[in-house]
Amino acid sequence: MAGDWIKFELTTLDKPEVCQIADLADIDLDAVVGKLLRVWGWFDQQTENGNAPSVSKKLLDRLVGVTGFCEHMKVVGWMIEEDGVISLPRFERHNGKTAKNRLLTAKRVANHKAANARGNDKGNAPTVSYALPREDVEKIKDQEQEPPLPPEGETGAAATVGDGKPSKPEKPSKPLAKFDPLTACPQNVTPSVWARWVKCRKELGKPLKETTCEAQAHMLADCANPDAVLEKSIANGWQGLFPDSVTAKPTKTESRHTGLNQINHRANLGEQNDDGSYPI
Questions:
Q1: What value, to the nearest 5°, has the Cα angle with vertex 211 and ends 178 and 183?
Q2: Cα dist. 41→22, 144, 222 in Å?
Q3: Nearest partner of 113 among 141, 94, 145, 142, judged by Cα
Q4: Per-residue confidence at 45, pLDDT binned at 50, 70, 90?
């Protein structure tokens, strides 16, 4: 059944995010992968779109048996928390009924093409075993052989309106603007430091996405020294931010020797002598 499995890529075993979670949780990589599958499987079974408003991080931590595991997933950008609601980013790409149907269809089409290729190599066979249902095979053949028909009432290369003049073609929709992480600099972070952090993530092959920028800005909102947090991650080549590893900025104490030029040092000295001295 569609709900009895989830999509899992073999490349996940060696992804940097898995290594980072293993380091934060102080467990081995295989244990991290197993606990990730538990979390992803729970969201696949219990939610429709990856949002879990009624579940807490504490419950999920208890499910995997590691305290703070959800926080580690947030650090690497594999979990989001907004207004007390936790969710999985890009859930619809890997989970849910639609994603599973999409994957199964892609596999059936690939098998169908591979079977056709083998049949062409061997010549015309008396019998053909289709990887797709008969209805899907006929639909693919129709799409390959016959051009799409114009809408009803349209003939030839262009449609006409009531006065006989060709109708104007619709303008193509504008592509969505590409997200620039430089524009997502948190308010309490120096722009030049944020620019170096954006460049560092790009050099690591993990450019910042909009969702990750929002999560990191939320993480640094109450940080006493956000610039130092970013600088430390840049220096160590980390992909995540660790505010707890950086101490707050030292507070400046005012020197006792400031403002001496504003003090009247002749006050209370009495009347000045003729030679410029004062009586003792």
A1: 50
A2: 19, 38, 33
A3: 141
A4: confident
Q: Which of 74, 69, 94, 103 is nearest to 86 (CA)?
A: 74
Contact yes or no for 77/71 (Cβ under 8 A): no
80: which strand partners?
87
**Which contacts qualify for 205-213: CB closer than 8 Å, 24 or more apart?**
206/16, 206/239, 207/181, 208/181, 208/184, 209/77, 209/179, 209/181, 210/179, 210/181, 210/184, 211/77, 211/80, 211/89, 212/77, 213/181, 213/184
Q: How many Cβ atoms from other residues are within 10 Å of residue 60's Cβ?
A: 21
Q: Where are the beta strands (DSSP E) in 21-79?
A: 51-52
* Mean residue pLDDT across the chain: 76
> For 155, how many CA atoms within 13 A lie in the half-sphere containing its CB?
2
% of the chain with per-residue pLDDT over 70: 63
C-alpha 162/C-alpha 37 separation (Å) is 60
SS3 74: helix
Instruction: Tell me which residue of 262, 265, 228 sits closest to 248, measured CA to CA.
Output: 228
Mean pLDDT confidence for 87-100: 67
Q: What's the pLDDT score for residue 153?
A: 52
